[in-house]
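Table S2 (text version). Query chain:
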Amino acid sequence: MLKCDMLIDSNDIKSTISKLKNEDNYTILLDITIIDYLKFPDITPSRFAVVYILRDKTFKNQISVKAYIDDNTLTVDTLSNLYGSANWAEREAYDQYGINFKGHPNLKRVLNHHQFVGHPLRKDYEITKGQICTQTEDLMDEMEPLLKSKGYTPEDINDLMLLNVGPSHPASHGTIRNFVAMEGETITACVTEIGYLHRGFEKSCENHTYSQVIPYTDRLNYCSAILNNIGYSKAVEEMLNIDITARAKIIRIIIGELSRIIDHLVCNAANMVDLGGLTNFWYLFAPRDSAYDLLSKLTGARLTNTYTRIGGLEFDLYDGFDEDLAVILKETEVAIDDALSLIAHNKIFHDRTQDVGVIKADFALHYGISGPNLRAAGIAHDLRKDKPYYGYENFEFDVVIGSHGDVYDRMMCRFEEMRQSIRIIRQAMRELPDGPINVNAPGILLPSKKDVYGNIEGLMNQFKLTFEGIKVPKGEYYSSTEAGNGELGFFIVSDGNGRPYKVKCRPPCFYALSAYAKIVEGGMLADAVVTMASMNFIAGEFDR
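Corresponding structure-token output:
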């Protein structure tokens, strides 16, 4: 069984991680997850363990810290006073597993409804047990302490306007509720509630084979589904110690970067709509639609593509793919230029986006914010450069950064990142090698139809892979990729069976959204809307 980098006593969690942060510069808490060993074949010191994944300020060194939790207390110290990212991460662990984090300022459910009974990611939870929740939470248990910490008396609080911005609000897409206290048009305090689109992604993964999980990853960030496919497949392949073929790597880069372009087109187009710039929306959505047509032709689906396979890809590039792709890339370049021509010297656009929704660099790292939202704050962190995979280190492209971390910087970063993705794709198409798109691994990939129909070994292999799944070696592993919104990670636990014992997704949107309330405090209500749009919150990703 693979071991974490550090196995410590649960009583030493706070002191150990404090030392890692202060002395070894592990300034980023990427994720916290819980493992329930109730049905694991090996004997463990206790039923539950907590795993912390940390990265240092150079972005090159990563460490995992694991501690078994006392079965009698199910309690460990909170890290919320060390890392802002720990706040929601610990709430999720409490919600899904019932682990108590001593000293947490607001330990309550974050994904499941507050009336929900039980902890669904425990191995003894009855998955078929139906529950009906009927009450809307007023969120005053969070708002009142927050306002009192800002010096408001009960009388002052009564004079404030309390307003729900979402979930029934165009900017929140029906999936985010921001409960705000306002003085005039200024937000003085904000509380964010999510979970409206929670579908039990991690629980579903436990009941499907490794290959059957791939379509579920499509439903995370559905604006760039293939990047989710790639991230998950890469994690499983690394657990299997599989190196996919050279052609498969380059095709994943090409299609992944095209998906990143689509993601950024959607984000900036939607942001322009929230700013009142409908013309920009049409400029940017035209190449997006063309890209979806290409993906449909390649994969059979426009939105949820399910394109990767463990060990390779479902389909090779079709004849004429290069011509279709070249047209889309040119169309995208024209759309970017056209959109920028309308806003580059537009005073209204500048007034609505500059010095609005500012995210400082230290704040972003504190809350585990990654991707374009982090780079716009001036930090040149990109996993394609810092921890390259699939040969990204062989491509020439720039990591785009901003200087102020406001709405303007986030939008401009995404515009320029699209240009860099186009640059990568063109290099990849020139370097695309011949050869197979799948590894030769009978126990991992389905046999050809010829083998299935022509010999008993092929038929048996088809049957075993379909019903039993890929036998992944026993172990625990974390793998990450640079997705559309930042670091997309998968922490997978295998018990040696054909189904994952546990899959934990580290969604970049989840951590960015956890910081949103603090970002908009002190700003105007109208600015909160465009700030939300510029950070590109995708509900399928943070809710799972």
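Notes on Table S2: DSSP finds 21 helices and 14 strands in the chain. The first helix runs from residue 13 to 22.
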